[in-house]
Amino acid sequence: MPDPRPVDLANCPDLEAALEAVNRDLAATLPEAGPMRLMCTPSDDEDIPDQFHAALPDGRWHDGVTHPAAPGIAEAAQETVQAVLWQVWPVCPEHRTGVHADTGADERAVWWCRIGEGHELCEVGELAQTLPGKQRRALRRKERRGKG
User: Which terminal residue of the chain, N or C, has fewer Cβ atoms less than 10 Å from its own Cβ?
Assistant: First the structure.
């Protein structure tokens, strides 16, 4: 099997947007992880699809997905965080348990909590909105300082 290679996001705007959304969520809730990169391990067999991986800045990654759509990229990032950093991510603030990448009713990539009947936590890329007020305000101040 070939080595993973970086995905040329300039030619894949949907993948670029999906990765940017995941990286916004990481920056808001797990900034020490750093922004992820999207990698692809091409298949040697035309019957087996390429594998896409969300890699940490140091190149470590875990598992992969064959469907490089927004929920798949979020799932790959979640797998990497959990397997490499040994951290449950992201977490539902109401139930204090891990959530899962899924597709919402309108085909948006969402973080979904499966506790009870289940509920949508938020759209992938919008985890900052789920933070408690003090943390959310601190994050906004940090973002403003970074832009100034």
Answer: C
